[in-house]
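Replying to the earlier thread about multi-chain prediction with a worked example.

Input:
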Amino acid sequence: MNDPEYRAGIVDLLGALGVGELTAFQRLAADAEMAPTLGDQAALAGMAVAEFHHFERIRDRLAELGVSIDEAMEPFHDAYVSFHAKTTPSNWLEGLVKAYVGDQIATDFYREIAVAVDDGTRALVTEVLADSGHADFVIDRVRSAIAEDPSVSGRLALWGRRLVGEALAQAQRVAADRDALAAIIVGGKGRPGMDLAELGRVFARLTEGHSKRMSTLGLAS
Amino acid sequence: MNDPEYRAGIVDLLGALGVGELTAFQRLAADAEMAPTLGDQAALAGMAVAEFHHFERIRDRLAELGVSIDEAMEPFHDAYVSFHAKTTPSNWLEGLVKAYVGDQIATDFYREIAVAVDDGTRALVTEVLADSGHADFVIDRVRSAIAEDPSVSGRLALWGRRLVGEALAQAQRVAADRDALAAIIVGGKGRPGMDLAELGRVFARLTEGHSKRMSTLGLAS
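Result:
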């Protein structure tokens, strides 16, 4: 943490993760209102609450570093707001697919970045990205809906492609804007990072993980 | 819990409280999006999350009684949905006033009812209604806003009156519909309850508490 460029990168990483958790909370909570039953509503609300507790952990870590989370999140706020504005689910199933697919691709992305950071930061990132055990709920609901009406699968598959496309577009925009964050990934003075070939493999892994999850849901990717 | 009428009343009480917490979660989470800063957004989201954890405690207690929370909440869902539909805040300050005033009047109401129930149920009700420590946040924000622009206080005072009016209208509707819940309040075979004079005093206390809170906010009631 003594290298100011590295420290700025970690603050960026935590800020981006924090605003991701906070906006995920907002969207999941809003999407919960579309639930067909009160039980389903409570389940999605529970997913939202898990994201909020992750947000709190990140806020506490930033406070330890002497940085207000508001300040750290600010540069990334627009990207997340744009992402959610462009991917507002129009029904309950779209909301579920987004909760699962969006959450998981963000998880994979931040885990790949976390390889390059110090042990303490990596432990925190891994902790806040731990599966909250709600994936099974989504998989069950989506598969049942497809079994009941196979025609929904085509629309949901398109929806999944749109989600991943928007997510990658916003990630690229952020990486291009934030030098300190990019330096965490590609390395800096005296710190090794990923070369282009490795970055290519990261993106290949992200896409592959996404495809696997789509097929777990019973959807073409 | 051996008296079936009493048991039905307790299930009603917990169901009404549960749907209250769950819908409060939904509304607070939605209102958080109107926050002027990310810090304020996180604060309101934190209030929402506290309500959700109360919901979980009630769900667990109902499960112990062998009742699904879905079933217990169902009869009260419409009243809460109507209340929130009729009192959707149109801006951040209205959202804050609603969060505070609405939450507190519900707290007072359920505490008054809890006087008439068994110790275990009363302990749970008291626990889930405990102040989550967010009142100070609301009071501070509302008072500052009035200090900055005194003209907002007239509109917010009207808003507070509308909130309490709608809350009492829905409470009366529920009490009229649900005999078992009403019997908890007014008593049943072998169980003393409140007489009409006492009920009158309860309502007087609710109104008085509301007036005090409005003046804490710097608003006429």
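The two ends of chain B are 41 Å apart (CA to CA).

Feel free to reuse this layout for your own posts.
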